[in-house]
UniProtKB/TrEMBL annotation:
GO terms for molecular function: hydrolase activity. The lineage of its organism: Bacteria, Pseudomonadati, Pseudomonadota, Alphaproteobacteria, Hyphomicrobiales. The keyword Hydrolase applies. InterPro entries: RutC-like_sf, YjgF/YER057c/UK114. Gene3D superfamilies: RutC-like. Keywords: Hydrolase. It comes from Chelatococcus albus. Its EC number is 3.5.-.-. Belongs to the RutC family. Pfam families: Ribonuc_L-PSP. This is RidA family protein.
Amino acid sequence: MNRALMPAAAPPPFARYSHGMEAPGGSRIVVTSGQLGIAADDRIPEDAGEQAELCFRALGAILAEAGMDYGDIIRINAYVTDRAHMKPYMEVRDRFVGAPPPASTLVIVSGFTRPEFKVEVEVTAARKD
């Protein structure tokens, strides 16, 4: 089982994430590409939370392809185009991640390949079979 690393010498996390995650030896690792908030019908919602929802659903499909699920995520890298998108993104993230929550980084970027995109999320997952 993946183990959260929460040393007492480090300040508490700013939000719902772990300072680090340790995967046991011999774990299978899955690394995803960044997923954007685009629906299967190519619709891109205006709302950042809806885009984040689509990102996490796509990530879930990728993980399922490898026989994993959201509980196997050990690291999230997320990117938003404005501070205003942080809260809706984090609300969606918190619904999808397991316990303990994975390590996580959220970065504000100037933009993506298309101006409609507001959120991109990539994950690393590990599972010991």
